[in-house]
Write a structure and sequence with these properties.
It comes from Canna indica. Belongs to the universal ribosomal protein uL18 family. This protein is mostly helical. The chain has one domain: 2-Layer Sandwich (Nucleotidyltransferase, domain 5), CATH 3.30.420.100. It is built from two helices and two strands. It has a two-stranded parallel ribbon with strand order 1-2. Helix 2 links the parallel strand 1 and strand 2. The longest helix has 17 residues.
């Protein structure tokens, strides 16, 4: 099973002022978390590449997935 969310989705774009800021990343994380739970996926593992750090947009997506109820392994 898989789930996805993107700022490029036609249904999401009108509700976002811009698709490139932290607020947009937070909204994507929330929607992705909700979609994962609807598909019956209660937990996910997140692996960051060596050059990626847990801040900014990455942090917004991950934190909002967690706030939606998805457990991170």
């Amino acid at each position: 099973m898989n789930a996805s969310a993107s700022s490029q989705e036609k249904l999401l774009r009108p509700s976002m002022d811009t698709t490139r800021d932290i607020a947009a990343a937070a909204e994507i994380g929330k929607i992705l978390g909700e979609r994962l739970l609807l598909k019956g996926i209660p937990a996910v593992s997140v692996f960051l590449k060596r050059e990626q750090r847990y801040h900014g947009k990455i942090r917004a997506v991950i934190d909002n997935m967690r706030d939606a109820g998805v457990k991170l392994l």
